[in-house]
Amino acid sequence: MRPVRLSVVTAATAVAALTAVTGCAEKSDAKAGDGAGAVQVTAKDDACELSKNEFPAGHVELAVENKGSKVTEVYVLFPDDRIVTERENIGPGTKATVTAEVKAGSYEIVCKPGMKGDGIRQKVTVTGGTAVKRSPEMDAAVAGYRKYVQAQADETLPKVKVFTDAVRAGDLEAAKKAYAPSRIGWERTEPVAESFGDIDPKVDVRADGLEPGQDWTGWHRLEKALWADKKLGPETTALADTLDKDLTDWQKRVGKAEITPTSMANGAKELLDEVAAGKVTGEEERYSHTDLVDFKANVEGAQQSYELLKPVASKNDPALVTELDKQFSALSALLDKYRDAPDSYDFASYEKVGKAQRKELSDGVNALAEPLSKLAAAVVK
Prior knowledge:
The protein has about 375 residues and is α+β, with helices and mostly antiparallel strands. The protein contains 11 helices and 11 strands.
């Protein structure tokens, strides 16, 4: 995803504050999806107007309308800029609904016209209320997803060590071969990347995503060394050591990360938006051109989130489930055209995927993202 990056100062507080999100959130008076009691957010090129700056804790709905001339995105943020929820790529003249769980406290709602910069911010207060009663199915979904994310983290570390050992050994070709497989588990967990605090900007940031003064570390810095610079040495050895350390930290954080049904649903949708913005365009893996490996892993992670929430969504919105099943199947079939074998993660180099084929992939992502944007509201009806 494209999370708000934490500064060095705020990063130190991120892990300690993770419990401020919703596992024991309270429920507002409004029913998600019915529009009544929703916070109306009017996004303009020079303003972010809210219908109210105070509302009760629990399942909160934001009804967003973009009245500006630029594509915008809307965030709910903690005071230290960690993301509670987000919705990107809201076009001029369009509307979007975002459902999230929030606990009592202080937050900011942010509109980002042009999807750049710090955005236009409004402080909001979330007051107390009655505790949310989660169904056994929703509890099972969260537990299942946490188990899935932990398994991905556990399986990632040995694959990363193969990659980083090759970097430390100065073996350019072995490192190139191990690069994409080392990223699969991480990419599968990106629906809940924000819940890991400051790990994402340490391990998965691109050069154009760096904050002022931020050191460039992680996979993509090493990707550049392998494919663009074509050399390994003391600097890349240090980077490999740092990647090992940061991902070990990630593995330990999974059990403490705050995961909720709405963060699973919203995260899956936002991940597909990132696929459309970075994977389909070729920006993510600009040196290695292994974008389709990331793409497939992202879709798998989003689908896992959906499958765990499906028992609840099936009761509340069976038509939505039918459409999501159809679109996940269609996108998976489309990706399979570019892999060597059904169970293989050897995909075609993205350099060989032409404009028409990229457009087909983009259309497939968008066809899935539209119904997926309704999943969070469906699970809290």
